[in-house]
Amino acid sequence: MSEPNQFDPPKFTTLPDRMRGYMRMFWKENRQFFGLLFCIVFFKSAIADLSSISGASMLPTLLDGDKVWVNKLAYDIKIPWTEISLAEISDPKRGDIVIIDSKRANKRLVKRIVGIPSDEVYMHNNALVINGQTANYEVLSREGGVVTIREELPDKAHRARLSRSLYNLSSRSYGPTVVPEGQYFVLGDNRDNSADSRVYSFVPRGEIIGRSNAVVFSLDSANKYLPRSERFLANID
Description:
Radius of gyration: 26 Å
Distance between the termini: 87 Å
Number of helices: 2
Structural class: alpha+beta
Largest sheet: 5 strands, antiparallel
Mean pLDDT: 90
CATH class of the largest domain: Mainly Beta
Number of domains: 2
Shape: elongated
Helix content: 10-25%
CATH architecture of the largest domain: Ribbon
C-alpha cells in the first residue's frame, strides 16, 4: 500500500472550515448583487426616494395612493442613514411640499411649508396672515360641502381645500405666533382634515427629509388599485 502524498488535500475538513469555504464561495458568486443592493440602499438613504401618500390631508394636490418623488439633496447633504447634516445646500421655502420624519407624530408626514423662521403666522377661520400680509384667495370650485381655492402665499400660489361644514372649527384659527429659528410651520392643503403644525407644533429643519415636486405613479385604492394614468410623472404645485 502506497504512503499518502503529503501534498494531497485532506479528504475531510472541520465544520468551521467548511462554513468558511461556503461563505467565500457564496460571496464570490453574489458580490455583484450585494454591491448593487448597497448602491440602491445608499441612493434611497442619501439622494432620492419615493414616499407613499396615505389619507386625504393633502387634497386636492396629492391623492391617496400617490407615490411622490423625494429629493433628499434639496436642502442638505446628510450622512447616509442619519439626520446629521454635512452641508446646507439651500433653505426650505414657503410653498414647498416636504416629507417630514416627525418625532412628535411618530411617523412620516407630507405637508406644505407655510411659515419659515422668524415669520409671524396667524390664521383666522382658515384665512392665512403671514407677517401681517393676508393671503389672496380665489374660489375655483364649490362641490357639495367642499370649496377648492387658490391660495397665494408671499412666494407661491397653490390649491387648497376647505370644508363648509361646522366640523373641526377649532383648528381654523391659530396664533398669532412667531416661527422659531431652525424650525418651520407646515399645513396640509386639506385644511379641515390635516394634523399638521396646529397639532404637532413647529417642524425642526433636521426632521425634513426632502422636497417633492412630482408624482411618479398613483394607484387608486377606491378602484381595485388600478393605476391613475393621468398622475404618471405629474408635476405638483
